[in-house]
Amino acid sequence: MFKKLKEQPAVGKLIAQYDQLPRRDQQALTVMAIAILLGLLYFMVWRPVSDFHDRAVADHENSADLLAWMEANEATIMRLGGADGDTGEAAVAVADGRALMALVTRSAREAGLSLQRFEPSGQNAIRVWLEDAAFAEVAAWLERLNSGHGVIVDQAAMDRSREPGRVSVRLTLTI
Description:
Layout: H1 2-6, H2 9-20, H3 23-72, H4 74-81, H5 97-110, E1 115-120, E2 125-134, H6 135-149, E3 152-160, E4 166-174
Antiparallel strand pairs: 1-2, 2-4, 3-4
Helix pairs in contact: 4-6
């Protein structure tokens, strides 16, 4: 492989120029090439891998903390979510995306949740953003939407807030 590389006219010209340099300049050029190669390896390989690892560890710790909080508050969540099956709401099917949007906004308001943003996502889905909401209230609201209206959480992302028990949530809800 190196033989074919050396046979290239441009590479041959560079090697000839290198050979014509004084010994001291050749050594300096070699040291500089090694330093640049090490810098590239650090900034293009090691640092991104290290940053990814650090983020993954932090995400894992956050998830473990959230799971521990959820397990510690399971009874409250189940109580607020109406896990006994007696929510008092009749199951009502949602016909289309506009009805889903109306249902989601109305039920969020009734649950005491303030939607920061919402937008349609396809024909039968809606994306919803909540900021700094009580986790138990969000969980109870989602359970009511599911059990009472057949609304399904298609995608969900939760980030805990600085205050315990509060989260920022991004959801995609479908019918």
